[in-house]
Amino acid sequence: MRDVVIVDGCRTAIGRRKGMYANYRSDELAAVVLEDLVERSNINKGDVEDVILGCVTQVNEQGGNIARTAALIAGFPSHVPGVTIDRQCGSSQQAVHFGAQAIAAGDMDIMIAGGVESMTRAPMFSNMQGTKPSEKLIAQYEIVNQGISAEKIADKWKFTREELDQFSLQSHKRALAAIKKGNFEQEIVPVETENENGQLELLKTDEGPRANTTKEALAELKTVFKEDGKITAGNASQMSDGASAVLLMSSEKAEELGLKPKARITARTVVGSDPTLMLTGPIEATRRALRKANLSIEQIDRYEVNEAFAPVPLAWLNDIGGDPDKLNVNGGAIALGHPLGATGTKLLVSLVNELERTEGRYGLLAICEGMGMANATIIERL
């Protein structure tokens, strides 16, 4: 099996739902990232052998195989194919895994993996068109909203509302500090759009983090899914718009082209988990990825565990025994947002850059997914 390397990666700034990208088409937003990625890597668009994009809500402009349409919009020649996949919140992370598998097997040498989601222009669940779960499914499992799953996790791990809110406050503080220090500047592709006054505006800063977030403000928010529950809009991820992508190659092809890769993909895994608790998969996925890489959690320098809801990374931290000072050090989805199909490679790009910035060696990415699944990836900085 051949080594698979990440040559480069980029993302848009993440916009709030109905925020700065409200009038920007999803396929055109994905195209911006694809075009920038090949430019910063200095490769020919025609040398890319496939474009794999994650996208969860495949309706409207996100339907019709957005990976293909975005690549054509970005000026890739017509011989470059594209495919769109849905592994729920881990869709673009799964795109990386599929791309890496094709390269490791020797089928391809150069792949782009990424994702896009506009939760403004293609609202969550609009692709379901009101469809209810199969009676044969609900006869076997308790099928609930993800928010109810988060409530069940909070109860099972005995997290208090105060603990969840404190974690959420930390996410905002870390995200705001990262923005102030310029930690995301290198990875963000500025997007030019027309504002409400008809003037051109360059969007290059994540829109989600709130400087006025306080412990008291979070405590005043009403619960969303359960009257006597703990999950609020403040300790859950934000609905967001954005796009992201990474360029994958075999190490031999990167050397042939004179490119210096940023990281190696060391291990990758995907697991199914309880479809009712739904969001606990990152725990087992992490264990499997560590075993595959022959590493311990103590050897991992940074971890990104998606903040779908505050109980998710907290339960992961509890069961894996990780160091909280290594977890989501630049904030997470509670502050920065969660553009479903784009989140995997968005977090991967940030993880690669964080390892470069801190001269860390290993990084881990784990994301929970709807209906009870999770992906985990371990990378090594080169």
TrEMBL record:
This is Acetyl-CoA C-acetyltransferase. Pfam families: Thiolase_C, Thiolase_N. Residues 4-251 form the Thiolase N-terminal domain. Residues 259-381 form the Thiolase C-terminal domain. Keywords: Acyltransferase, Transferase. NCBIfam families: AcCoA-C-Actrans (TIGR01930). It comes from Virgibacillus salinus. The keyword Nucleotide-binding does not apply. GO terms for molecular function: acetyl-CoA C-acyltransferase activity. The keyword Endoplasmic reticulum does not apply.
